[in-house]
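[job 0412] stage=fold_complex status=start
inputs:
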Amino acid sequence: MVTERTVERVLRDFKKGRISTKGILRYLSNMPYKDIKFAKVDTHRHLRRGFAEVILCQNKTPAQIIRISKILIKNKQPLLLTKLSREKFNLLKKSLEQLSYNEEAKIAFFDAKGRLNRRKRGIVLIMTGGTSDIPFAEEAAVTLEVMGNPVKRLYDVGVAGIHRLFDKKKLLDEASVIIVVAGMDGALPSVVSGLTSKPVIAVPTSIGYGANFNGLSALLSMLNSCSPGIAVVNIDNGFGAGYFASLINK
Amino acid sequence: MVTERTVERVLRDFKKGRISTKGILRYLSNMPYKDIKFAKVDTHRHLRRGFAEVILCQNKTPAQIIRISKILIKNKQPLLLTKLSREKFNLLKKSLEQLSYNEEAKIAFFDAKGRLNRRKRGIVLIMTGGTSDIPFAEEAAVTLEVMGNPVKRLYDVGVAGIHRLFDKKKLLDEASVIIVVAGMDGALPSVVSGLTSKPVIAVPTSIGYGANFNGLSALLSMLNSCSPGIAVVNIDNGFGAGYFASLINK
Amino acid sequence: MVTERTVERVLRDFKKGRISTKGILRYLSNMPYKDIKFAKVDTHRHLRRGFAEVILCQNKTPAQIIRISKILIKNKQPLLLTKLSREKFNLLKKSLEQLSYNEEAKIAFFDAKGRLNRRKRGIVLIMTGGTSDIPFAEEAAVTLEVMGNPVKRLYDVGVAGIHRLFDKKKLLDEASVIIVVAGMDGALPSVVSGLTSKPVIAVPTSIGYGANFNGLSALLSMLNSCSPGIAVVNIDNGFGAGYFASLINK
Amino acid sequence: MVTERTVERVLRDFKKGRISTKGILRYLSNMPYKDIKFAKVDTHRHLRRGFAEVILCQNKTPAQIIRISKILIKNKQPLLLTKLSREKFNLLKKSLEQLSYNEEAKIAFFDAKGRLNRRKRGIVLIMTGGTSDIPFAEEAAVTLEVMGNPVKRLYDVGVAGIHRLFDKKKLLDEASVIIVVAGMDGALPSVVSGLTSKPVIAVPTSIGYGANFNGLSALLSMLNSCSPGIAVVNIDNGFGAGYFASLINK
Amino acid sequence: MVTERTVERVLRDFKKGRISTKGILRYLSNMPYKDIKFAKVDTHRHLRRGFAEVILCQNKTPAQIIRISKILIKNKQPLLLTKLSREKFNLLKKSLEQLSYNEEAKIAFFDAKGRLNRRKRGIVLIMTGGTSDIPFAEEAAVTLEVMGNPVKRLYDVGVAGIHRLFDKKKLLDEASVIIVVAGMDGALPSVVSGLTSKPVIAVPTSIGYGANFNGLSALLSMLNSCSPGIAVVNIDNGFGAGYFASLINK
Amino acid sequence: MVTERTVERVLRDFKKGRISTKGILRYLSNMPYKDIKFAKVDTHRHLRRGFAEVILCQNKTPAQIIRISKILIKNKQPLLLTKLSREKFNLLKKSLEQLSYNEEAKIAFFDAKGRLNRRKRGIVLIMTGGTSDIPFAEEAAVTLEVMGNPVKRLYDVGVAGIHRLFDKKKLLDEASVIIVVAGMDGALPSVVSGLTSKPVIAVPTSIGYGANFNGLSALLSMLNSCSPGIAVVNIDNGFGAGYFASLINK
Amino acid sequence: MVTERTVERVLRDFKKGRISTKGILRYLSNMPYKDIKFAKVDTHRHLRRGFAEVILCQNKTPAQIIRISKILIKNKQPLLLTKLSREKFNLLKKSLEQLSYNEEAKIAFFDAKGRLNRRKRGIVLIMTGGTSDIPFAEEAAVTLEVMGNPVKRLYDVGVAGIHRLFDKKKLLDEASVIIVVAGMDGALPSVVSGLTSKPVIAVPTSIGYGANFNGLSALLSMLNSCSPGIAVVNIDNGFGAGYFASLINK
Amino acid sequence: MVTERTVERVLRDFKKGRISTKGILRYLSNMPYKDIKFAKVDTHRHLRRGFAEVILCQNKTPAQIIRISKILIKNKQPLLLTKLSREKFNLLKKSLEQLSYNEEAKIAFFDAKGRLNRRKRGIVLIMTGGTSDIPFAEEAAVTLEVMGNPVKRLYDVGVAGIHRLFDKKKLLDEASVIIVVAGMDGALPSVVSGLTSKPVIAVPTSIGYGANFNGLSALLSMLNSCSPGIAVVNIDNGFGAGYFASLINK
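[job 0412] stage=fold_complex status=done
writing structure:
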């Protein structure tokens, strides 16, 4: 692995004349990623970003996913595969036996070092407006767990029956960060944010029909929240919410 | 005035030969409105629809408004002029002295018969999410009052501080109909509807900035409410909400 | 069931010292809903809102629907399942034998107490612009009937042949509330509203093609109606129109 | 002026050797328009298209308009200037004294040959939904009159009071072509078209507010009309409707 | 069939006392359409509108189509069924043997009286920008032919190779009306219109990909044509263009 | 001020019979906000949310702003007035002398307790893509400073000259949270996020022209970032970004 | 084949009287394309435009594609078929044995004259943001190669790991033209353009989900790039980018 | 100025021990731009990109523009200020006397080295559809001239009178690159591209009204051109088109 030390050593060698000017340039261009033509696998992302490269599987072929995964495993990186259908997983499983799959979250993962379920970090509370929003909430939850955060779930507490929410006020108080997943009117994050001093990450979902226009209604509602303390990720992007929550949950 | 009785009488005359076939056709074509070329003033709308013709002033010239108003006054109809700027009102005032003006609601009205402030109907509660939504709420309130409905106001109770709403739960229980006016995330109608069995009329407003796209965020949020019992009117259409509320408040 | 009386009794006990401060807090947190993790079934919604919780089936698994339904049945609540495909219904039928299914409305329901077909309320008239709008009209009709409202139907009377509408003027006069379901140009509610003093609930549908953009044309047309007395629900939301009509038909 | 005859003569001359090959090419490149750098004035459009070039003044400077107009006048073409503000007209008037101005239509014109008010063509009936739509209707009317068509006007007959329309059924029967100008819900063309076998040209206007999105609601409504026999022009494009109506009114 | 004469006779009878006041009202309510609950078949549309009711089959069940068709046949109306898939047609064929089907146009029709191929009317020229636009052009062509108009076709003459168009200038000159069908940039109607004094009916199609947004690019392009003399119908609405063209081709 | 202690005391009094059941209910309904009809001033928001109520001045009258401000000052709350024009500030200044104004940020504030410039928290780095984005960045900066966070600024480092960014890599490493403000292509947050393990809050701005559609281009770009670790606030919402950053910077 | 010389000869013959006036007109109308009714095959496009007609196969039937292809082959034109599915290709293969197919690019081609792999032109560098963008990049690459341009590929160098890009700076320097293919945030072209003086052709792709709205996010981002030197083609239009790159790579 | 040579020299010094490791790092961080806090002036962009930094003035204060300009002048860079109003220019003129201003193009420039009007490059032909598009065409023209390209103008040749275009075919043949500026239907680039083998850069403009939605109609039309060989820049972005044309005109 390329570390700051390696670089220092190489610089020393250059100074001592052991490496030519051309050579040092070539060395520096030898960046810490593996080039397999159709993908440039970023094997050192963990060092730079705090977590390994995550593979969005939606538009990749199984062959592509397997090849990228093997490089990451070889480099002792944890694997996190998102938006992965059951069908594709079954194909991957033959080559990547270590993988386990979470059907609801549509996520496969493998974590050799057992980074899961550490308890030193604050709790991330994940809430949904309805039952149909759960898959995206689980995508966030699994992402957070793989990244070592304890997670609590509070599902189906939409504003149509807001007493269900007040009843669980204690859960809000215990959390360090709150993720709110909601489709349709996307009103839940505004209400939750008004009740707490914790940062709220809002995930609009495409759940609904008619004038929800595939999640646009919830997205606009969340961006225009009358309550400050909310930031928003892409429609259906449970992974993004989980990843962002993990970054601020240190 | 043309009433059912007049028609019966005319029909009788036709049968008795006092009116020719041509004559009855001409009579029937003599519909109960006044044709002043640029407008067909519907002087009998009160009979047919339960309320006189309302004049949307936004794109009309003062001369047009004055002419239509005078015909309605002559026909003893109550006058209701909406979306009327202070400047235009000042011009109208010279010709239509009876008019009084509500600056906040941007409505002028004149009601010879004193239909205002009757108390036999149920209370219509008008709520706003914020202070900036008040002009549209007042447009609804004045419309309702002119149409003879008692009105209560509960302003600035947006979901960012939802305890302000719960505190006033009694007002919700006393109302027959509830109008909820909100911009930005448009989340208030969903919350209010979840707390009551009264019909909720939602008025999205253009209040906000950025991705609210002139009220689109609130409109979509309200149309996609996760709580049933809500119907929606046009953006900034306080008058429409008041009119509709009056129709169902019988 | 939690009633006001139960609360009074508990408060008395607290005063008498039979219940500790902590105890009363715990009691109050024991809110009247059943927590089954993936859903918080609102068994008392009937008391609070006037009708039981309705299950939107579109994005729920059969297992989820069955579990929520069973809790509602156990709590003697009427069942109303909307946007339910024939395939899903067949799966549900095995576990929920009492359910009957309306294919056109895509609604299943079960009402132990026979709330159906009561005649004390006013008539709700349901109209459609075309034949293809009927499924959404039936969704409204079945919802209204389950909630105890007499319903009349007037289908395929679009403005392209407006005499078909005038011919049925009497039906408009007899109704207390009118629901108008229309796709394409969404012009019918404006015309109907101009002929009556009854509140008109407009349901835009996604029926059409090209620049109707999945119902946007009808939605915008209805929101911008030149005739006051109209409120609008979401595209294809027959259920929402029926529910709202029932609220105002008391 | 270049006519077919001129071309024939030139071709003959070429054959007879009076014109060289190069010469004929140069001649042909001498197309029947006047090049004034910032504009290529199409002085022969009348021959080709049946009417002279019309100048859309909205984004042109007075100097540009004057220069183009003078060339057209010199070529004995009728002048038609659309979307022309009163301010700009006052500036033009100094250089183009012949021009007369129609304030409502925002059109200036000059027609040396008196093509106006010929009566051999069929009547074009122009209708509006409301009073605020009149300027766009007048734009169509003036265009039609300049092009030699008799015009009848039927204004403010929107669907909110549809009896105002039925009352005037005879006017529909007498017309050869009908132009319907409407904003807001844009419902009028559908209703009119359902009552007649005449072609209906629909002009959506930007009149309205909120979710009419500058005329989008009326435009989509008209494009999706449930009644066949309608074609649509651009929002606020009274001129285009008048021009098209004149083409089919032969 | 109800004709003006029948009405006159009935009115006479009323005057003579042979029919009571109630009776005449009942008679008039007996409007000239057949009510089959899910549809109000407009059997007299031909008299009123110049052509029989056309059935848009896209969202109707085969059973509904058959029932409506049989009433029209019984009333000696020509049948025109649009947007009809081959699968649905095969089902219909069993009950409606007379129907013939045009696969490309997705239209079925039956015309007992042989209104087809009359030659007294002007020629309608139908052009397409590309090969993929042909189905919508054929929809227009078949509609026109059923309505008795001679049709000429000029396909695949898009502006990318504009010489293909100039080559066929004579066809433009011979036509009375021109229909231009184009997807993608929708530029063809502007070019055609600039070359002719005939009215151009533009049909935007959904052909294309990416930022054509299902025909929006062509639709907006056509509505904003820099050349006057164009009117537009809905995206993919070949039938509407054909119907409109027939109305103006008298 | 209402604190938990006050509540405990009141509860004790109720138990001891010093307060009746009715009395305790009345007490509880006496919620910790000041009702001034047009606004419900949330004087205790600091306790509940961690910061006092912030006043969005854009659509409020000076009179409304002054009245709300005075209540907050009386309750010893810090004042933060956003989207406040210079003109409005000058009017406010007469009544609220303590206020100071930041022209670039369009924010006025007053903080009696001197919460400003505390250094115990992490640094929040605020970056902009261009010079024109600075006002929104300053809105975030002032918000953060009033809330007690040290701020560093790195302006005009857009991706068009990305070396300007790499040069300042050290600033990224020192920060706890990064706010990135950008209009036009909105590409900067993606690039910044790829270089750091710190959470990035993205603020799209309306800066640009043409197809940026008032900030839509930057908003969509940021929501769809290919780099995880980004959350987004509303267009031009510098305040929201600052507030959210302060919540996570504990 | 029609060349300038043929025309000269014909003109000479006309002058000499060997061809009549009518004859020359007929000759000129005999334009250099083959009319097969459903398509006007532009067999001389190579002369006029520098490359033969390309067939977009997406909405054409196999029979149509085969017929057009055969004419082009007969006229010794190179064949390039884009957006061609494997299924359709298999059907074509039977009639057009010469065709070879590139699965990733979804392009079939046949080039009798071996125009491929010429090296005299500059290198076109094709970059992608991610692995999923490769099919559109390959569409551009194959197009370029068929048109005789040397191509280099640099895939999966998105801004989330921008060091992968800097590492390959030399490739940018060697290229004459750069094509950048990216979905999601579409940020890559801005970054690339900022590093080079070569023209950058940006291809937005529909890769992504949620608020990318089928490529709209990348399209708007690219059109609003803060870095000059970029031009954009349609979403997913790899062919268009390749074609345009070939035109400027002379 | 920092050149490659300077870097080589510094590296040599480092090797020789004249510069410490820390020193060389500090040196490298001393990037070639001038940091003036609100802007990072990119004084070396000419070396890297082929042209100096261009200042988009639209949202910058005069003070900001002056300060950035002075640094560029000091570094002997040519100045190019775009989207600059006459009012702002008058203010700038006092401090930057060298500036000259082009009113139509809204561009100010100053070029000490006289790079203007060199003739070695190919001709760039700039065309407009209408007279109102000229300001954006001039923005492109001035940009090109400042960057040393000979420019020819061909204005007002829109497709409504396409013979005006054919007449000037020779100009197309002489050009190396063609820029086509058009609003409304945006059809001109498709037609031009079909006639030439030169690359066409399309500039959609916001000229038009109604459903052109501020240039959206022209933008979509150009992106979806049925003729390959076109690339598009932002709406009204004449500068971007000129800059891109200059890059490919080498």
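[job 0412] summary: The first strand of chain E starts at residue 34 and ends at 35.
[job 0412] exit 0
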